[in-house]
Amino acid sequence: MENQQDKMKTSDASLPLGGSRRGLKKRIIPCLDIKDGRTVKGVNFVGLRDAGDGVELAKRYVQEGADELVFLDITATVEKRKNLTSLVEKIAREINIPFTVGGGINSVDDARAIIKAGADKVSINTAAVDHPELISEIAAEFGSQCVVLAIDTKLDNGEWMVYIHGGRTPTPLRAVEWAREGERRGTGEILLTSMNNDGTKNGFAVDITDAVSKAVNIPVIASGGAGTMQHFADVFGQTKASAALAASIFHFGEIPIPQLKQFLKEQSIPVRI
Amino acid sequence: MNINKTMIAIIKYNAGNITSVKNAVERLGFECIITDNPDEIRCADKVIFPGVGEASSAMNYLNKNGLSEIIKSLLQPTLGICLGLQLLCKHSEEGNTDCLGIFDANVKRFPPKDIIPHIGWNNLSDVQSPLFNDFGTDDTVYFVHGYYAEICPQTIAQCDYILPFSAAMQKDNFFATQFHPEKSGSVGERILMNFLQTV
Question: Predicted ipTM?
């Protein structure tokens, strides 16, 4: 709030519309991979680097203007589940923007524990492929807005195919068709990660993000490959993506979020500043 | 942390994410209880009626547990949030549900002309209430909803997504926001603080 003192204040009855600055904003979402209560980020899902304490990093992102946060527990196992729940409780107490928790959510019971701990949404990936009815079961109990279908996709012989188990296992599903089925079953959003792009810093996979975001009528979060501020402008300019997610470029301070948002604003992309 | 003596009751029912409202109220230094006990709700200085979920099952629960009449009879400042706002309207298309009828508006499904639900940060216009003291013209708040309340005489803030709808409403002691002040960063905290301190 300290930085907002120069902002125009109003108490009168009407606010004029301000052209393209007004309306729904494109969201910038830092992703924090969690392992044993700490943040890590893999490069192409292998060779993990430790990048600091999860909650501290989360608070820093909130101050910098992140629009949402995603936490992925990459070592989620049954015996670690309690650790995750208490971390989620701590995050929920300390941050004042929406956040999603994913990783190892295999049942409605798992989802309930995370949501009761204070998460706004859960993301499901492998379990949704194994048991697609899980999408509708979680949506029925907590609402579609609580369900994020995470799709890891990789280009195989010209086809964007769905992979599970952290990208290790191929499936016969095509990304566009799986996204459509997820929407039909009641997911509220789709988090689409291109494995070809993830960790490369060569930009988002504009083609598959475009195809998926046109195929469904729910928000698509583009993920994988962000390396420059222009990459964000490209994915918002060339696809219907509602949000873009990245990890390492934020964790290591390569792209500060306030600078990124200023850059996007100058490109006439609606962002929250 | 409880530096303020005001007691806030958050109404407990079968609608999700009440924890985040409690966390937000406590971050602002207020004491609160999550309760479905009629006496505790009636005795609170202020009441928050939050909710994320489906309208017909929520109304069924409120009716079955005697909470509908209690909510309608409240005299202290009461703040509905998200589904809470919609349930304070006359009727919702979601599950063809008769609601509490505090506000003279109906709740409708967004026409499928853009991405639904409306998820994310959006601006407000025509802001007119102490609830929005110090609200800046470029400030944004966080929405998540597939249904909207029509504009009506009790509308105190509008948002435009697909069409203009009620982002906030007020009638007498009843306030309500379609957006989530508890999830809208420092802007949302200011709005919650205005409710907790000013109105």
Answer: 0.93
